[in-house]
Amino acid sequence: MSNAETMLDRANAAAFSKADEVRNSAYALKYHIAAPSGWINDPNGLVRFGDRYHVFYQHYPYAPEWGPMHWGHVSSADLAHWRHEPVALAPDMPYEKGCFSGSGVADGDALALIYTAHDDDNPIKETQCVARSFDGGRSFVKSPLNPVIPCYPEGCTSDFRDPKVWKQDGRWQMVVGTSHDGRGCAALYTGEDLDHWTYRGLLCESDGTLGSMWECPNFCRVDDQDLLIISPMEMPGHKNIVLFGNFDCAAGRMSIDHWQELDLGEDFYAAQVLYDGDRTLLIGWMDMWGKPYPTQKDGWAGALTIPRELHVRNGRLLQVPAPELKALRTGKRIDSGDAKSLESLTGDCLELNLGMAKGTFILSDPEGELLRVSLSDGRATLTLPNGRVASAPVAPDCETPGLRVFVDRCSVECFVNGGEVCFSQRIYPKDNALIYRVDSEAKVDAWSLGDAFEAPVC
Ligand code: FRU
Asked: Which is nearest to 178 in space by CA: 214, 150, 209?
């Protein structure tokens, strides 16, 4: 590395130099956010700034595996088509060995990122930091006041990360995930500006059943309902849940009424929300810790889900694919009342709409079944060839029951009954050959979906 070359220069060279190879590899996703090359995990810094949406992500540009964390970056004018941007953050300060997850806000003229500086060699381990861009997100400058929160709250542990910031009652509010007496919790801070924070106390905490540490807490209010989305560690059988409750901003506390799993597929974690002025959107990491990542051999691993619009109905969260995704449709493939029409469908970048109150959708490759999703007896159920079965009840009163399915080469996202139940699942079909089938009557619509990315230039 020459003197003038920075960690960011090196990171960009690493991420973008292999971009063509990755793009041409068999499973490269066409319309989901993934890195030009290398590793990604959590979505970070979701923000609408000016006339563009910005999505950042946990990124290791040097290899398709987790390593010292950087922040990768993409942006979009329409939420459907994306452009790769230069790597936004590298761990280049004495107080950090990794730039962990966090959030993004519009702070006057600046696009500001609030993130966790991680350093395993420091007993404090995790502190909260700020970086700002004054050129629309092309480059970021870290605050001279970093770390702006230099230590975890008394009584909590050094697992203290993933700040999510929003504005309420005229002040910045921040939740940070941590642990107290072995129970997951979210610490609440408030600030007049992003460099100065006051600890308010624990926003809420596990009652002993909701995990030992809360990663990636996200507060939002959807359809007059306060929600706290968390990724609890050590909550057996559950990965990413949403708590329904009531946030008393003056008191700094949120009650917990009930909770719901966000997505019952194997590949969904660390979801983050974005309020864009009109609605709340959600994007998750479409993978999970500790799973095989077969695309590593092609130089990449990890992707984000499509953006989903959030709604609350009868105490349940609905996730609906953002309507903007219709802009990806390149051609109608099926428009039929006959479910059999699905059996002649080919292709692996598709959107399907299966209008049915009851039945099973089966996705296979030439070697066998990859997954099945069934809708019957008031339940939606995902069954995988590894024997895993995940199931949740659906309300009986859905006006347009059925499945919306987004297939993108090595991923499937399935939204049941208007998004009441969601399944995100990675699949690795042999020779990219997919076979589609429904075992009941269904009204079938299918579209081919096109490439969402401009060719990466950096
Ligand atoms: C969640 C997480 C976060 C952390 C990041 C590190 O997947 O463990 O808590 O900030 O990933 O990459």
From this structure: 214
Structure tokens of 406? 């987004």
CA of 435 to the centre of ligand 1 (A): 35
- First-to-last alpha carbon distance for the chain, in angstroms, is 19
For residue 184, what are its two tokens? 């997951």
Q: Which two tokens stand for residue 327?
A: 């802009």
Give the per-residue SS3 of 347-394.
Answer: CCEEEEEEECCCEEEEEEECCEEEEEEEEECCEEEEECCCCCEEEEEC
The residue with tokens 């810790």 is 289
Q: List for the chain the helix, strand, coil content (%; round to 5).
A: 10, 50, 40
What are the pLDDT tens digits along the chain (458 aa)? 445 789 999 999 999 999 999 999 999 999 999 999 999 999 999 999 999 999 999 999 999 999 999 999 999 999 999 999 999 999 999 999 999 999 999 999 999 999 999 999 999 999 999 999 999 999 999 999 999 999 999 999 999 999 999 999 999 999 999 999 999 999 999 999 999 999 999 999 999 999 999 999 999 999 999 999 999 999 999 999 999 999 999 999 999 999 999 999 999 999 999 999 999 999 999 999 999 999 999 999 999 999 999 999 999 999 999 999 999 999 999 999 899 999 999 999 999 999 999 999 999 999 999 999 999 999 999 999 999 999 999 998 898 899 999 999 999 999 999 999 999 999 999 999 999 999 999 999 999 999 999 765 55
DSSP run (H or E) holding 16: helix 7-17
Cβ(220)–Cβ(203) below 8 Å: no
Does residue 116's CB lie within 6 angstroms of at least one atom of ligand 1? yes
Angle at 225 between CA 222 and CA 227, to 5 degrees: 80
Question: Which entry of 9, 20, 42, 267 is annotated as an active-site residue?
Answer: 42
Q: How far is the CA of 9 from the centre of ligand 1 (A)?
A: 24
Q: Decide: 100 in ligand 1 pocket, CB within 6 A.
A: yes
Decide: 28 in ligand 1 pocket, CB within 6 A.
Answer: no
Q: With a 6 A CB cut-off, is 240 part of the ligand 1 pocket?
A: no
List the structure tokens of 415. Answer: 């939204």
Q: What is the dihedral of CA 4, 10, 285, 258, to 10 degrees?
A: -30
57 and 43 in contact (C-beta within 8 Å)?
yes
Q: Active site includes 42?
A: yes
414 CA distance to ligand 1 middle (Å): 25
Separation of CA 42 and ligand 1 centre (Å)? 6
